[in-house]
Amino acid sequence: MKLIHRIGYFSVGLFFGIMLLMFFLGGKKTSCDYSPEARVLKNIRIKERKFSAEAFNYFEANKLDTALVSKSLEDGDVDFGRSNTNAKPCNIYLVTNEVNSAILELQIENCDSTATIQKAILKD
């Protein structure tokens, strides 16, 4: 079989395989969270969220919407250098996100069933 025929058959099979995957996985909420940062953010997003008194007071004092936490968990970055991933009983992560040309930093305690926002700081 000539090389051009092989490439043609491979291309047709690849096309139908991709179409089949898009058909089966298209309507589902599948995700490919393979990086450590994506896994941590997804893990925090799926848990029940609580706010410490300090964090909630900060949001109220600065007239910030708590929906910024959800936005930060979607678009934010985990600063592993400043996080305490070996804390007992729960890991503590620092999540940063740009909000209205300022940086919102969230300190989140990630336990087995809940994620508690301990501190929030908005830096210009």
Note down, in words, how this protein is organized:
- It is built from 4 helices and 5 strands.
- A hairpin with a 3-residue loop joins strand 4 (about 100-110) and strand 5.
- The chain is elongated and about 70 Å long.
- Strands 1-5-4-3-2 form a 5-stranded mixed sheet.
- By secondary structure, the protein is α+β, with helices and mostly antiparallel strands.
Summarize the structure.
The chain is an alpha+beta fold.
Summary keywords:
124 residues; alpha+beta; five-stranded mixed beta sheet; 4 helices; 27% strand; elongated
The largest beta-sheet arranges its strands as 1-5-4-3-2
Helix content: 40-55%
Oligomer: single chain
Estimated radius of gyration:
21 Å
* Major sheet details: 5 strands, mixed
**Strand percentage, roughly?**
25-35%
CA(first)-CA(last) distance: 65 Å
Structural class given helices, strands, pairing?
Answer: alpha+beta
Number of strands: 5
What is this structure's SSE topology?
Elements (H helix, E strand, L loop, with lengths): L2 H23 L10 H10 L2 E4 L1 H9 L5 H9 L1 E2 L12 E9 L2 E9 L3 E10 L1
